Structure formats: C-alpha cells, structure tokens
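REVIEWER CHECKLIST
Item 1: Sequence provided? yes
Item 2: Single chain? yes
Item 3: Sequence as submitted:
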Amino acid sequence: MAVRLGDEAPDFKAETTQGPINFHDWIGDSWAVLFSHPKDFTPVCTTELGYMAKIQPEFERRNVKIIGLSVDATADHEAWADDIEETQGARPGYPIIGDADFSVSKLYDMLPASTSGDAKTRTPADNMTVRNVFVIGPDKKVKLILVYPMTTGRNFDEVLRVIDSLQLTAKHKVSTPVNWKQGDDVIIAGSVSDDEAKEIYGTWEAPKPYLRIVPQPT
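Item 4: Structure as written out by the authors:
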C-alpha cells in the first residue's frame, strides 16, 4: 500500500544499531524523522548520515527523534558508522534500522512487495527508491514525504525548516508562505473567518481578501 500524507505511519518492529524497537512506541510523544538509504557504504548517504549526526541537537531541541534505515544488516551499519565518523567528523548517535529482509522498505512502499532474496547481492541501483524522508507527528500521522535520487544529497536544513512550520501550524491557525523561516510573517488559515481572526490577531495586512498576513504568533 502507498503511504500518503495524513496516513498513520505504518508500525513495525525492527533491529537497530541501538537495539530492537517497536516504531510507534519508540516515537512516543515526540515527532520523528525516518530517512532511508539504499545501501551501506554509499558515498552520498555517508555525507548525509554524518551531517545528521552533527545537527541532531537541532532536532532534539524541537522534540524530534531521528532514525535511519539502510537495506543491509545491522552489523554492517556499525562498520559504516566508523567510515562516517572518519570522513565526516561525526558518528551517528541515532539508531539505524537493519532492513536486510526489506520488510520496512516494503511496508513504506519504497520497494515493491515482490522484492526478495539476499540483500548483500543487491546493488544501490536495485534499491534506488529507498531514498525517502518521512516526518511523523506525535499522533503517528505522516506529515511530510520527500523522495530524492541517489545522485542528490538531501537538504536536512530544509527538513528542519519544514518541521518548524509543521509545529507552528499545528499550534496556531496559520499557514507559512514561500521560503518562510522562523520569525517571518505568516498567513491566517483559510478556515478562520474574519470575525474569528479579529479576535485572535486584531488586524492584519491583506493585499487580497484571501491573503491575510500577520506576524508569526508565539
């Protein structure tokens, strides 16, 4: 089954570099980022895992847990972590799922349900669709899905920006405009009537009746 925005994130049990988990229990009351990789010891993913290790405190400050996934056994991830630390200057402090049986990749529709065999015999190109970022809320619903090609490194600063927007708009009846970042003006949600908006915000700038701009609420 396809995983779409607003769906409940499929739950699963898995072995990780930090021990076994039940995914929903592991998320708990936090937000979560699940980001997947086609194979251990791939160059672009090596840079990504290292960068995520460096900025993990930024996710933690936002009450967001990070978990990686690669289509290899958990034991292989440990050796890869050595390379990541050596080349990127940071070692992953977050768990990485071992998905050598493809179960999580298939559950999240990153590989066809018919995928089988020995993960070690598969090339990164065989798993090229396992390059996703899923942001999941405390309600266990999927809030964001990004899919990248193998040749393009992911922008995790953008993932942080989107999480800031998701957390803001979950708390307040606003939307964020193009290229929004923390502290910028926001848009009053279309579901809010003018009368309700007056009670909440007082006044606003409105270049068009449907485009009501206010300072970011706190």
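Item 5: Key structural point noted by reviewer: The two ends are 38 Å apart (CA to CA).
Item 6: Recommendation: ____
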